[in-house]
Amino acid sequence: MPKQKKENTLKEFEEAIDKEKHKQYILQLYITGATRKSSRAIENLREFCEEHLKGRYRLEVIDIYQHPELAESEQVIVAPTLIKKLPLPLRKFIGDLSETEKILKGFNIKVVEKGTDGRKSKSGTGRMARRKE
């Protein structure tokens, strides 16, 4: 491959990575009052967002007892329910959001960790890389 083409390809790749780093996530969490399950969902989601989306998300927590019209307009029939509005595609998650792997998959986020020897490891958490669709 000619040197100029390699440089252009690398530049395009770096620009795509930079664009992904700045992508904003718009999230809505529908809960039912101050129940234990609602509290766990809020706590689990905040931990997830701080670990995987730090500085790149907007979270709106909506109590369906106080705003039933919002739940109805989004067709939320079970709580807690998380709706990932952006980036597209829209995704819905039901439950206390304790299954991090399912949320990562639904957000299309792949976590890659480098071990102490510098090689990639599949276990645990580490830096985030987007999965190619």
Brief synopsis:
This protein has about 130 residues and is α+β, with helices and mostly antiparallel strands. The chain is built from 4 helices and 7 strands, in the order αβαβαββαβββ. One of its GO terms (biological process) is rhythmic process.
Q: Could you characterize the architecture of this molecule?
A:
This is Circadian clock KaiB family protein. Residues 28-109 form the KaiB domain. Helices cover 37% and strands 27% of the residues. With 133 residues, the chain is an alpha+beta fold. The protein has one domain (25-130): Glutaredoxin, CATH 3.40.30.10. The strands form 2 sheets. The protein has a 4-stranded mixed sheet. A 3-stranded antiparallel sheet has the order 6-5-7. The longest helix has 19 residues, at 3-21. The chain is elongated, with a radius of gyration of 18 Å.
- Rounded to the nearest angstrom, the radius of gyration is 18 Å
Name the helix and strand elements from N-terminus to C-terminus, one letter apiece. Answer: HEHEHEEHEEE
Structural class label = alpha+beta
Number of helices: 4
CATH architecture: 3-Layer(aba) Sandwich
The top-level CATH class is Alpha Beta
- Taking the alpha carbons of the first and last residues, their distance comes to 25 Å
Oligomer: single chain
Mean pLDDT, nearest integer? 83
Q: Extract low-pLDDT stretches.
A: 120-133
CATH topology: Glutaredoxin
